[in-house]
Amino acid sequence: SDHMENIYGYLMKYTNLVTGWQYRFFVLNNDAGLLEYFVNEQSRHLKPRGTLQLAGAVISPSDEDSHTFTVNAASGEQYKLRATDAKERQHWVSRLQICTQHHTEAIGKNNPPLKSRSFSLASQGSANSPGVQRRPSQNAVSFFNVGHHRLPAGKRVPIMQPDHLVNVREMMSQAEGQQRDLIRSIECLPASGHLTSLDQDLLMLKATSMATMNCLNDCFHILQLQHASQQKGSLPAGTTISWLEPKISLANHFKNGAAQNFPAEINKPASVREEQSIAEPCQLTREPEEINPDEELEDICDDKEDDLGAVEEQRSVILHLLSQLKLGMDLTRVVLPTFILEKRSLLEMYADFMSHPDLFIAITNGGTPEERMIRFVEYYLTSFHEGRKGAIAKKPYNPIIGETFHCSWRMPKSDVAPDAGTNSSSHSPSEQVTLPKDPEGQAEPDYYTVKFVAEQVSHHPPVSGFYAECVERKMCVNAHVWTKSKFLGMSIGVTMVGEGVLHLLEHGEEYTFSLPCAYARSILTVPWVELGGKVNINCAKTGYSASINFHTKPFYGGKLHRVTGEVKQNMTNTVVCRVQGEWNSVLEFTYSNGETKYVDLTKLSVTRKRVRPLEKQGPFESRRLWQHVTESLRDGDIDKATEHKRALEERQRNEERLRAETETPWCTKYFLKDGDGWVYHKPLWKTVSAAQTQQMDSN
Questions:
Q1: What is the DSSP letter of 535?
Q2: Tens digits of per-residue pLDDT, 639-692?
Q3: Which residue windows does the record flag with biased composition (Polar residues) (predicted)?
Q4: Which pTM value belongs to this model?
Q5: Distances (CA, A) of 64 to 77, 527, 553
Q6: What CATH number does the domain located at 7-108 have?
Q7: Per residue in 418-456, pLDDT tens?
C-alpha cells in the first residue's frame, strides 16, 4: 500500500501523574509492525526505550480533545500520546490503523495449520527461575488434568431418568470449573517469552474448550425439553414447571471443578436458594397488586457511580470483549462483564427521571397552552441529569421479564409553581369531574402524591413499560421503551425506541414525546455518557410542538452535552421559546417577549423517592430481585456479584425455553399490549372517564 511507509516524529507521551507528559521521538516500523520510541532523535540508533506490537492493537482518538489518542496493544500495554494539532493526530492515527490492520490480518494468513503439538505450561527450574519449556512427553490434557469418564467394558448407558438430570448438571458444573481453570492458567502466562498467552495453539484451545461447553449446555437443554414434553400431557392446569438446578452451591461451582459432595439445600447460600425459588411466584401471582403509598418510606440509598477502580483493573477483559465485536453489532444478546454495572435496574433508572416532581406537577398549572408546553419542555430537559448516577458511564441491570419497580414521591403543595390565575370556567369539562373521595373522610393532605410503576413486559426484544400519575392534579404519563444497543468502535450507542404520552386531563390535552439516544464514550479509558439525536414533543389539540436537539461532541472542538430547542405554534409557525445550554449543567430559556430564564440543574432540589422496604416487596420487584448483586457490588466482590447475576439470567433463559416448549404465553402484570405499544392496565384517564359517566348519570 502507498500508505505503508515508515513514519517518525516527536509526540508527547503520558508517563504518570508525577512526570506527566514528555516529548519522545516515535518511529512506526511498518515492516515489523512495531511502534518504537526513543528519548530523542539523536538516540534513534540506540535500543528503543519502549516497543509496542501493533498486531491486534486498538488505535483510538480521545474524546477529551482533538490532539490526544491512545494505542492499546493486545498485551494490555497502553500508550497515551498527544500530537501538536488535530491534523498531525489524524496522520498518526490513520497510519497506525493501516499498519495494525495489515499485521493483524497477516497473523491469520501466515499461521500454519495446527499440528500434533505437545506442550506444557508447567514451570521448569526453581521458584526464582520461572522459565517455561516445552516437553514432548506432556500434553495439555495431562497438564490440566482434564478427566474423561469412561464406562466399564460391556456396560450400556442406562436410560436417563428425570432425577438424573440434576446429577448431569453437577457434572457439567465440574467441567465448567475445569474449563475456567484452563483459561485462567493460559491467561496467567507472560506476554513474552517462549510460550505466551497469545500462543496460537493456546488461543485455539481456549476457543474449542468454550465451544465444547456451549455444545454440552445445548445438549443438556435438549434433555430438559424432553423431560418437559413427557410431563406436558399430565400437568394439571396452572402448574408451574420448575427447571432443574445443580445441587452444589454457586459459590463452589465458580471456584473449581473438583468433585465434591454437598447436601441438596444445606450448603446453598440463602440468597441463591431464594433466587432459585422465585420462579413459581412469577407464574402464580400475575394479578396486579395495589401498592399503598403509606407503606413506602423515603429512600436512603445513594449509590453514586464514580468509582472506576474495577474498570481499570479489568482493562484486559474489556479488550478481549471488544476483540469479539464488530462495528454495528447488536449488543442485545451480548453478556457484558459485571464490573461495569450500576447498582440499580433499568426500571429504577426510569423512575429517577421523575426526581423533580414539582416541575412535573407544575405543567398542568400553566395558564395557557403555550405555557403548559414550555413547562413540559423544561421538565423534560431537567429529567436526564438526575437519571444518571455520577459522571462515569455504567450500565444498569437488564430487567428480568416480569420484573417490576414501584415508588412514589410526596411533594408539598406549597413547593409547586402555581397557575397563572386563569378562570376555571375556561377549562374543559373534564376539569369539573371529581374523583371518588376517601370513604373514611380524612382531611385532604397538604402534599401531592406522584405514583410510579414500571414493568419489563418483553425479553426479546427488551421492552419496558412505565406509568406515573398524580391523581389530585388529574395528570399521568404512560410510556414504553425498547432499548437497542450497538457497538460503534470505541463507544456503545443505545437507541431508545418507543413513545411516551403525557395526559393533562384537566385540559383534555395529550403530549406525545420520544427519547434521545445515549452513547457510552471512551470505553477503554474513562467511559462517559452523552446524549444525541432529535426528539419531538407534540400536542395535537393545541397545535403547539417542540423540537429538541441533543448534540454529540464533534471530532474537532465543540462543547460536551450541548442541547438546543424551540417551541412553536404550528398554525402560525411562530417560535414562542428557544432553549440552549447543557442538559447536565445550565439551561437558558428565551421567551418571545424577550425575557430570559436560567435553570442550573446542579442546584435543583431533588425529591427522594419513597420505596417499600425489601421485606415488603414482592420477589420480582427490582430491589429485592437484584439485592444480592447490588450488595456484592457495594462490597466490591465482583465474582460474587457475577454468580448471582448469572443465576438470575440462567433462570430467565430456561423459563423462556420451557414456556416455548409448552406453548405457554407470558402474561404481563400491569401493562397491556395496545397496537405497537404498551398501556398501563388502569390508567387515570379511564378512572376519570368512568367518574364523569357516573356523574352525568346521577344528574
A1: E
A2: 898 889 888 888 888 888 888 888 888 899 999 998 889 999 999 988 877 666
A3: 117-136, 421-433
A4: 0.58
A5: 20, 11, 10
A6: 2.30.29.30
A7: 765 443 333 443 344 445 444 455 567 888 999 999 999
